[in-house]
């Protein structure tokens, strides 16, 4: 695994990204040479900014592929799935590169060349994807993991590995029972604990041991044996780090407060705050400029539908527990909560208007919050702000819930792009685990990744209610 800031990146995906960038840049030069193959002069000399054109082209196509989820790990992908995702990605890239060349005409190298460039790019990416698919089938890039523990926490770790949502591909070699830990796994997967952990790891060729035990009191963790494994080259990880690394979550049900206190992360330095604020203003103002026609049209449609208010303000909890009023396009009928206390949004909520249902799916209702970002009440990326009524309940029911208020809330965030819209306490717990990850590991690089994932959510309509 590679780390940028505190965020883990799969080596497999990093290698794939690097190879595809090389293919995209090479396709520009190859397309130009093929197009002017009969020319007596070198066509490259006719385009002095070709290196910049190739970089812009590669950047736009990589962004398009990222926005449609082509860099999300799927170890069980098929050729048809790759092809179905690649075609819309290239179509989106074609539209964006057309806009880029319109804005920067000096970088344009002609329609004939562009057509060849897209052809060579598609063929190259398709071949590389097939090659990576084959390496996945042959179990390359795979690690063998041994879990110390066979209880509920170990089962959750195994379920995560089995789901295919991890940043790395694993083969589980077995589980070793821990003292005072109730077994929740089939007997055939539990290994006998009659030998030392190092001997068990070597016999099963395990490269990593994950300590997945909730109750660590009373000598339940064989520290000396685990140290012996680490000294002999077997990587040793606890379950909290495993979930953080592989699922971008910090699990609250098995979390030790000392792990948060003594671990890395939680950068609140002046430089981080400066970069964060600059990113917020640049992205927010850029999106406001691009989406202005959409916002004007939305405002007109909301008013025409029921002649009600276009915007609505709602009290939310921000950084440090201070409240502020968030501004959104109205997506529900007037007086939606006139009957009493606040309610969770639900699937196919009857309070939602026809226009409201559309702008929620496309996340257009969130755009007026750009004003909250400019005022400094919110960030563009951060935990989703909740209403004081729900925050009071959730702080009492969920441990560490108040940690998410140590930074500004965001229009989009890790929980919004990784988990469907929350409508219960259980959903709030799942979302908190993503929010805690962001609070602990937030960086400019992670903000950019979340921004790209947000584009995917908007394009594919994921998670909206």
From TrEMBL:
Coiled coil: none annotated. The chain crosses the membrane at residues 12-30, 50-71, 83-107, 113-132, 281-304. One of its GO terms (cellular component) is membrane. It is found in: Membrane. Keywords: Membrane, Transferase, Transmembrane, Transmembrane helix. InterPro entries: Bact_transf, EPS_sugar_tfrase, Sugar_tfrase_EpsB_2. GO terms for molecular function: phosphotransferase activity, for other substituted phosphate groups. Pfam families: Bac_transf, CoA_binding_3. It is a multi-pass membrane protein. Residues 276-459 form the Bacterial sugar transferase domain. Belongs to the bacterial sugar transferase family. This is Sugar transferase, PEP-CTERM system associated/exopolysaccharide biosynthesis polyprenyl glycosylphosphotransferase. It comes from Noviherbaspirillum humi.
């Amino acid at each position: 695994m590679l780390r940028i800031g505190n965020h883990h990146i799969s080596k497999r995906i990093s290698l794939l990204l690097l190879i595809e960038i090389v293919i995209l840049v090479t396709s520009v030069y190859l397309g130009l040479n093929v197009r002017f193959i009969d020319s007596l002069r070198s066509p490259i000399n006719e385009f002095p900014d070709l290196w910049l054109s190739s970089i812009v082209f590669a950047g736009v196509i990589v962004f398009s592929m990222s926005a449609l989820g082509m860099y999300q790990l799927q170890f069980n992908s098929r050729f048809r799935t790759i092809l179905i995702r690649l075609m819309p990605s290239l179509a989106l890239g074609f539209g964006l590169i057309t806009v880029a060349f319109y804005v920067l005409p000096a970088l344009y190298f002609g329609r004939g060349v562009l057509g060849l460039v897209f052809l060579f790019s598609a063929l190259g990416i398709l071949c590389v994807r097939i090659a990576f698919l084959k390496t996945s089938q042959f179990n390359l890039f795979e690690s063998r993991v041994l879990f110390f523990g066979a209880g509920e926490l170990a089962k959750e770790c195994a379920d995560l590995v089995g789901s295919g949502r991890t940043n790395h591909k694993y083969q589980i070699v077995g589980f070793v029972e821990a003292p005072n830990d109730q077994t929740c796994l089939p007997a055939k997967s539990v290994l006998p604990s009659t030998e030392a952990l190092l001997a068990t790891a070597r016999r099963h060729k395990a490269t990593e041991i994950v300590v997945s035990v909730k109750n660590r009191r009373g000598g339940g963790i064989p520290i000396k044996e685990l140290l012996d494994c680490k000294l002999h080259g077997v990587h040793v990880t606890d379950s909290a780090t495993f979930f953080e690394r592989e699922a971008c979550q910090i699990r609250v049900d098995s979390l030790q407060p000392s792990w948060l206190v003594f671990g890395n992360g939680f950068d609140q330095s002046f430089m981080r705050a400066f970069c964060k604020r600059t990113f917020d203003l640049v992205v927010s103002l850029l999106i406001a400029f691009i989406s202005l026609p959409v916002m004007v049209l939305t405002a007109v449609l909301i008013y025409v539908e029921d002649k009600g208010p276009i915007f609505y303000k709602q009290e939310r909890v921000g950084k440090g527990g201070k409240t502020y009023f968030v501004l959104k396009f109205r997506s529900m009928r007037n007086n939606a909560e006139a009957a009493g206390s606040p309610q969770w949004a639900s699937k196919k909520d009857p309070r939602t208007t026809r226009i409201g249902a559309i702008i929620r799916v496309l996340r257009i209702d969130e755009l007026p919050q750009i004003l909250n970002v400019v005022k400094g009440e919110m960030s563009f990326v951060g935990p989703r702000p909740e209403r004081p009524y729900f925050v009071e309940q959730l702080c009492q029911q969920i441990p560490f819930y108040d940690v998410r208020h140590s930074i500004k809330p965001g229009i989009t965030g890790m929980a919004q792009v990784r988990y469907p819209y929350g409508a219960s306490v259980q959903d709030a717990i799942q979302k908190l685990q993503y929010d805690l990850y962001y609070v602990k590991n937030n960086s400019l690089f992670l903000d950019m990744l979340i921004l790209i994932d947000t584009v995917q959510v908007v394009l594919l309509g994921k998670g909206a209610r």
